[in-house]
Write a structure and sequence with these properties.
globular, alpha/beta, 5-stranded parallel sheet
Length: 129
Amino acid sequence: MSKIRILVAKPGLDGHDRGVKIIARTLRDAGYEVIYTGLHQTPEQIVSAAVQEDVNAIGLSILSGAHLHLFKRILDLLKENDASGIKIFGGGIIPDEDVKELKKMGVSEIFTPGAPIEEILSWVKKNIG
């Protein structure tokens, strides 16, 4: 059985990557194969990497306030690339009403600041593998 592959990314202009690095390391230490794309990725770069790396999920970290636009663009690009089966989850400073909107769009889960790392890992294990 092949390892579950998860791409983690920082879309947009946000330059804070401490949280996403902690998530990447936590997932790696839990046995997942993790691809971290680095800072300032465009939705096109993220989807291209996800398709090339044949990932099972994409984890996005967004603190810039552009979450509605960036998640939607990534979801649209996944559809255009016949990759809608890739699950999307994310975290960042995202108001509750926007969390509901993101889930309506097709985002699987959103973790806001203060979410325990164990909760995130438990969700990944249950929903991605």
